[in-house]
Amino acid sequence: MSKRLLIVVVEPDPDRAQPIADGLREAGDHDIRIIAEQSGLARQVAELRPDVVLIDIANPSRDVLEELALASGPSERPVAMFVDRSDEGMTRAAIEAGISAYVVDGLRPERLKPVLDAAIARFHIFQQMRAELAATRAALEERKIIDRAKAVLMKARGIDEEAAYALLRKTAMDGGKRVADIAQQLVMAAGLLGR
């Protein structure tokens, strides 16, 4: 962690919050903000727009876990949660909620930096996977639209698949557009015409 991070620590107990803040300061030059009040947590986190959120909670319920996870935006930033004890269901719920690191047996200052590093690395890996998945889904949808457009052209013009694709491609090139955009327009027009 080389850049200065804005780290929000969610901890209602000041006696537990201070050692966490001190441990984070020892781990690096970070801007540490402590949120003690859990009501309005989503608003508070949104206003601060932290790089990382650390949640220290002794024994979370499933409802508290979901609320904290949603409030801290695990899809927008790394979130590490420290709990005193847990069970398989809570661990699974934390993972499903998008928590980057779920650490059982509480928070100890010597574990802060490695957990922070792991949470950030895991978050970036999942962000990359989400981006790749979104790109793959978009490409698949485009492929489906192009296939439908080819079918429309094949039926309307009595041509084979290769010729239909060549016609789509030429039309796209002539218009300075993408093949998928031309295909979408053709499918929409065919739908309006009832073809």
TrEMBL record:
Q: Where is the Response regulatory domain?
A: 6-120
- Indicate where the modification 4-aspartylphosphate is found in the sequence: 56
Keyword hit for rRNA-binding: no
What is the annotated signal peptide range for this record? none
Enumerate the InterPro entries for this protein. Answer: ANTAR, CheY-like_superfamily, Sig_transdc_resp-reg_antiterm, Sig_transdc_resp-reg_receiver, WH-like_DNA-bd_sf
- Is Secreted tagged as a keyword? no
Task: Tell me which UniProt keywords the record has, alphabetically.
Answer: Phosphoprotein
Residue ranges of domain ANTAR in the record: 126-187
Gene3D superfamilies from the xrefs? Answer: 3.40.50.2300, Winged helix-like DNA-binding domain superfamily/Winged helix DNA-binding domain
Report which residue ranges the record marks as coiled coil. Answer: none
- Protein name per the record: ANTAR domain-containing response regulator
Organism, as annotated: Paracoccus fontiphilus
